[in-house]
Amino acid sequence: MKTLLLLLALGATAAAHALDIPNYPPTGVFEGSDRRFTRTLTIYEDYTFSLEVTMKDKPGSHLRNGSGAGALTFVPGGWAYHEEGCHMEMARAGENLTLRVAGCAIAWGDVMFDGVYKPKARR
Q1: What's the predicted TM-score (pTM) here?
Q2: Distance from C-alpha of 79 to C-alpha of 72, rounded to nearest angstrom
Q3: Sheet arrangement for strand 37-43
Q4: Which end of the chain is more exposed for a tag (fewer CB within 10 A), N or C?
Q5: For residue 64, what pLDDT is reported?
Q6: By three-state DSSP, how is residue 4 classified?
Q7: How far apart are CA 9 and CA 34, in angstroms?
Q8: How confident is the model at residue 56 (pLDDT cuts 50, 70, 90)?
């Protein structure tokens, strides 16, 4: 009986945690710019995304750009995109999103995509 109660309690805890992050990503435009890069992530209602990154122009620097796009899938803790060695993981951080990108330099460009992306202010 104690085992059954423990399993029920663990199941209820797991179910409550699953409700914290719905299976669908938030839609809209998110900004992840910093002093070196301008970053824009757009998430569409059909679970696809586009990502644009541009290095800010500084005297003596070579301007670099990068972009990626694809369809997001639900994974425990957030969403992911995987294709031909390119991996992107995305998770909620309050109303913001955190992005981790690996192996996408050849396909998307050799720029920093990682960061915290905040919802763009609506006008």
Answers
A1: 0.76
A2: 6
A3: 65-71, 48-55, 37-43, 28-31, 115-119, 96-102, 86-93, 78-83, 73-75
A4: C
A5: 82
A6: helix
A7: 44
A8: confident
